[in-house]
Amino acid sequence: MRIPCPYCGERDAHEFSYLGDATLTRPDPAAPDAPDRFFDYVYLRDNPAGAHQEWWYHAYGCRQWVKVERNTLTHAIAGARLARDARDAAGDAAGNVPGDAP
Amino acid sequence: MADHSSHPLDTLPFDAVATAGHYGVAGTLGVTARRIDGLSIATLAARKGDDDALAEAVRGALGLELPRASRAVFAGARTLIGTAPGRWLALSGLDRDIAGTLRAALGPLAAITDQSDAVVTLDLTGPKVADTLAKGALIDLDPRVFLPGMAATTVLAHIGITLWRREEATWRLLVARSFEAALLRFLVSSAAEYGFELDDRG
Fold first, then answer.
1. Which residues does chain B have within 8 Å of residue A10's beta carbon, measured at their own beta carbons?
2. Alpha helices, DSSP H only, in B7-127?
């Protein structure tokens, strides 16, 4: 499988490490129902067969987080963008970027 | 049938860095690797949001345009390589302290870290460089695809490297010093069939 890194170009998946679902937003730990929301966030994950958005870290290249649209059945990749650009496009700091506070 | 009774790695211990000399097939020379000493090397990371101001300052200080992609640019003895968005490698065979030069010129616009002793620099020349690299690379390094001035931070034989093509016939490769022995084992074994020379006169 080859991932089109927006900076480096198309690279073998072995250059990346996988984080997981890029559609989730980390809950606010200060919220009154934070324990329940964290339980959902940590344990109740979907496992979609088909189109999916995922975080991949380009460890052996530009060391950037990349948001990849991948089909989990075919491994076909529909697109990839740098996390920093994905966040800018989302328009707020809660744009599901790894490591970001909610 | 090929003679498998001896192998160039037989005399090369795992934990020792290969010494200068000829390896593999005698009488031919497909690849020469020259260890380049005395380069001053630094990483340059733009402070958030200061990319344009940094590009301007670098233009004034080095006479080089900061590449916005995985590219190498050259001016005299100085080289800049794009390694990531907002991050570059600067090399100089002229300045004794490129990190100090950059720090004085760029002030707070970038984080600058000296890397001179962190990496080993190899210049690869010869008609079989691309064939040799192809044995360990995951990207297309065909000379018709990977053109002079192009750069890549990638893996070679499972080892992280930064590689660029300086000119038509010269490829330069940076590898973390602790991986020098392993990377040279790869070069020795992969270029042995073409004749390989390791040269310390750089």
1. 139
2. 51-62, 98-106
Domain at A1-23+50-102, CATH from 3.90.1150.10, 3.20.110.20, 3.20.20.70, 3.30.2270.10: 3.30.2270.10
Chain B residues lying within 8 Å of A8, measured CB to CB: 70, 152-154
Q: What is the pLDDT of residues B44-72, one digit of tens each?
A: 999 987 788 999 999 998 999 999 999 99
Q: What is the pLDDT of residues A50-100, one digit of tens each?
A: 999 999 999 999 999 999 999 999 999 999 999 988 877 665 444 455 554
| CATH number of B190's domain | 3.30.1360.120
Whether ipTM tops 0.85, in short, is yes
Nearest one of B169, B184, B164, B163 to B14, comparing CA atoms: B184
The answer to whether the beta carbons of residues B152 and B70 sit under 8 Å apart is yes
DSSP three-state, residue B105: helix
A1: Cβ contacts below 8 Å, ≥ 6 apart: A12, A13, A75, A77
Residue type, A43: Y
Q: What does the alpha-carbon distance between residue B110 and residue B48 come to, in Å, rounded to a whole number?
A: 9
Of B71, B45, B158, B180, the residue nearest A60 (C-alpha): B158
Instruction: Give per-residue pLDDT as tens, B112-156.
Output: 999 999 999 999 999 999 999 999 999 999 999 999 999 999 999
Listed residue (B63, B56, B96, B103) closest to B80, CA to CA: B63
Q: Which domain holds residue B159?
A: 13-36+118-199
With CB atoms and an 8 Å threshold, state whether B138 touches A63. no
